[in-house]
Amino acid sequence: MAVSVFIARRIDAGLFAHVHADVFDAPPDPHLLERFLAADHLHIAVAVERDQMVGMCSGVIYHHPDKPDAWWINELGVAGPWRRQGIGTRLVMTCMDHARRLGCREIWAMADPTEVAEGFWDSLRWLRTGERLAMFSSRLD
After folding, report:
1. For residues 1 and 54, what is the distance between their CA atoms, to the nearest angstrom?
2. Sign of the Cα pseudo-torsion (126, 127, 128, 134, in order)
3. Does residue 140 form part of some domain?
4. First and final CA of the chain: distance in angstroms?
5. Domain count along the chain
């Protein structure tokens, strides 16, 4: 069966009730999903086969006082049985096209420097601009 890849909109919210377990870290929360889909700066490309979501690539339009708008790829996920079939590439390309239409001048992602991640981004001919990735966080509660 063919996999459809497109930018999800609020009208597509029902698709998030039928997500393969490998796509997100946890099942989508309907309240968080509604907030996400309503936000102008948040976007998500989805890959759907029949009525099941099998992949996604979420992004943020990044506004900054001294740089043109850019698209930051926040997460990319493709369910195991659909990996290595070009779906991740299609998701990223869909985000790239959408970002261009929205006036973004650049698209970027951060990833752990693993063989899989490096191989994927190299296959897209993306330029590696960093050597290491360190992530820092702090709880706000």
Report:
1. 12
2. negative
3. no
4. 45
5. 1
Give the model confidence (pLDDT) of 92-108 as tens digits. 999 999 999 999 999 99
Instruction: Work out the angle at residue 25's Cα, subtended by the Cα atoms of residues 3 and 122, and round it to the nearest 5 degrees.
Output: 60
Q: Is residue 130 part of a domain?
A: no
User: Pick from 74, 76, 80, 73: which is nearest to 22 by CA?
Assistant: 80
Residue 131 forms part of a structural domain: no
Give 19's DSSP letter.
B
In a domain, 128, yes or no: no
The CATH number given to whatever domain includes residue 11 is: 3.40.630.30
Give backbone dihedrals phi and psi of 48, rounded to 5 degrees, phi first. Answer: -125, 130
β-bridge partners, 5: 47
20 with 79: CB under 8 angstroms? Answer: yes
pTM given for the model: 0.92
Domain that holds residue 96: 3-123
Average pLDDT value over all residues in the chain: 93
C-beta separation of 59 from 44 below 8 A: yes
